[in-house]
Amino acid sequence: MFKVLFLFLFSTLFLFSNEIEFKEEKYISALNASVYRNGILNINNDFIKVAYPQQNKSFTFTKENIIEKDGKKENIITYEDNLDLTIFSKVIESIYTNKIENIKEYFQIKKSDGYTTLIPSEYVANVIKRIEYKKIDSKLKFLKIYFTNDDWINIVQTN
Fold first, then answer.
1. Which residues does 159 contact at the CB level (< 8 Å), separation at least 6?
2. What confidence score (pLDDT) does residue 16 get?
């Protein structure tokens, strides 16, 4: 579940407002196969929304909670009840505001060759091997999340 939520939350990293389109690829090592889907990100002062129109699914991250919509079904998740999502919200906000130092509690930050690598602390390292991303101005060139089970997710802004 952590990986799925990580995917959705990190999909929100495509900086700056209005609708930003992205493509994501999730590689599943056990199946030796990838799953592809397109999404739309909307970043606002009051919320961040990740929508997958083809699946009729969305996640809205507000200051108070997370609203998951799947078709007509809505589920409200509190940050207090889900520490994983709390960490993700901090990561998203840190990258979005270019204040990556705000997540030093959870990740060691290394910058080299034009991209940034986040090495997880012991707290997060049981699930995530590392995260790599590259931004040019406000455009996310790529975000790749490597999991400890050899799965990975690659996200690319398409507009």
1. 20, 21
2. 42
